[in-house]
Specification:
With about 300 residues, this protein is of the alpha/beta class. About 45% of the residues lie in helices and about 15% in strands. The chain contains twelve helices and ten strands. Strands 1-2-3-4-5-6-7-10 form an eight-stranded parallel beta barrel, surrounded by five helices. Strands 8-9 form a two-stranded antiparallel sheet. The radius of gyration is 19 Å and the shape is globular.
Length: about 300
């Protein structure tokens, strides 16, 4: 496993803050390479104006949105706040209703659209999310859709494909994409599902840490399998699980097992031109501190990887 060391992370962050180093020709010519992969964060929709003002204050130009009642009024206020603060929306995280258990024992029964008894209510929620995106000017809905069966002969698989085809079609008719967030399934199982659903508007929100936290793939190698469908990326770090019942541990970027230089080299080889959303699943001042350090580091990688 190739991984970035703490020293390299600190050195790269220092470069982003202004330390002298060689500058690629495109940057020297006045073109900022980060325009090809703009950086953003995740914010809730409790108060769109305040949340998006904070995104701008932190120096980001894009934002993935989450939560809210998904009402027509909230969509109107969100669209206005996005325009007011000059923030580009990447997608709407749209999950629920009901509890999600983020582990290996209860997760398969509670996450996404794989559990049959949860499909009807969650399909309706997703349709409401699609309508919200259409009204607010958000290009896609994004979710964890569940532990997609590795075996396509599994009895859960045909029903899952059918309900995903329904939401994919509903979204396509309204000009909205549907993005799978990586994590619970291997890249090849996700590739098979996308091609079996086949609605033409499906993509992947590639979470670098989730592939490790669930023990499903090396995030660099996973791009060889699913890279052509990657539309956005969650920049997040973590460690492989050692407890067979619990996920691995999330860490600040640079302290886990994600090979970020390798990920960005592979993204560039794939001609990826999408959003990079920094995710740090803690709260409080430390979350913002980690996000801002990661912002400097990732900007340096985008320019130099």
């Amino acid at each position: 496993m190739s991984r970035i060391t703490r020293r390299k992370f600190v050195q790269a962050a220092a470069f982003a803050a202004g330390a002298p180093t060689a500058v690629p020709a495109a940057v020297a010519a006045g073109r900022d390479a980060t325009a090809d992969m703009p950086l953003g964060v995740i914010r809730g929709l409790g108060d769109p104006d305040a949340e998006l003002a904070r995104v701008k204050e932190l120096g980001f130009t894009t934002c993935q949105l989450s939560g809210g009642d998904l009402s027509a009024d909230l969509a109107r206020r969100t669209k206005a706040a996005l325009a007011r603060h000059g923030i580009a929306p990447t997608s709407l995280i749209c999950m629920g209703p009901g509890d999600y258990k983020w582990n290996f024992t209860e997760g398969p029964k509670t996450i996404g659209l794989v559990p049959p008894e949860l499909r009807t209510a969650r399909l309706e929620r997703l349709k409401k999310g699609v309508e919200f995106c259409h009204a607010a000017g958000i290009p896609a809905v994004c979710a964890h859709f569940g532990f997609i069966p590795e075996d396509p002969n599994d009895e859960l698989y045909p029903g899952f494909i059918a309900v995903m085809r329904e939401i994919g079609t509903y979204a396509r008719e309204r000009g909205i994409g549907v993005w799978f967030e990586t994590g619970q399934e291997t890249p090849i199982a996700l590739l098979r599902a996308i091609e079996d659903i086949d609605t033409g508007n499906l993509g992947v929100n590639y979470d670098t840490a989730n592939l490790i936290l669930y023990g499903k793939a090396n995030p660099v190698d996973g791009l060889d399998v699913i890279g052509k469908y990657v539309r956005s990326l969650h920049a997040k770090d973590g460690r492989y699980p050692t407890n067979p019942r619990e996920l691995g541990q999330e860490t600040p970027i640079g302290e886990g097992q994600v090979d970020f230089p390798g990920v960005f080299r592979k993204l560039k080889a794939l001609n990826f031109r999408g959003h990079i959303t920094i995710e740090r699943e803690i709260s409080g001042p430390k979350q913002i501190e980690d996000i801002m350090r990661s912002k400097k580091y990732l900007a340096s990688l985008i320019r130099t990887a």
